[in-house]
Amino acid sequence: MPGQGRRKRRQEAESRRAAALTTPDAGRWQVVIETRDRAELQAHTRSLQEARVDASLIRIDVLCRRPTEQSTYRLSRFVAAGEE
């Protein structure tokens, strides 16, 4: 398909850049919030985006459990070593 190679190269370049920014010696992941409420997670994510935090420096982990109502969302932000 036309343009597929270009999109793939762009996505690979973005993932390499994010990996280089978030190396363990460059800083650490700081948990912003851990909640079961998806709306609360989205509100905190929006507030980080409004604060102009780079999207590649935000991580959302879903800690799945059974039943699914007990699943937990963890929103983390990468904090550079000098910002701590």
In short, what is this structure?
By secondary structure, the protein is α+β, with helices and mostly antiparallel strands.
Largest sheet: 3 strands, antiparallel
Contiguous low-pLDDT stretches (5 residues minimum) are none
Radius of gyration: 16 Å
Proportion of helical residues: 25-40%
Distance between the termini: 46 Å
Number of helices: 2
Secondary-structure element string = HEHEE
- Provide the structure class: alpha+beta
Mean pLDDT: 85
Shape: globular
What percentage of amino acids are in beta strands?
25-35%
Please count the beta strands (DSSP E, at least 2 residues each).
3
Sequence of strands across the biggest β-sheet: 1-3-2
List the helices and strands and how they pair.
Blueprint: H1 4-21, E1 27-35, H2 38-50, E2 58-63, E3 72-80
Antiparallel strand pairs: 1-3, 2-3
Structure overview:
This protein has 84 residues and is of the alpha+beta class. The chain is 37% helix and 29% strand. It has helices spanning 4-21, 38-50, and strands at residues 27-35, 58-63, 72-80. The protein has a three-stranded antiparallel sheet, covered by helices on one side. The protein is globular and about 40 Å long. The model has no long low-confidence stretch (mean pLDDT 85).
Name the descriptors.
84 residues, alpha+beta
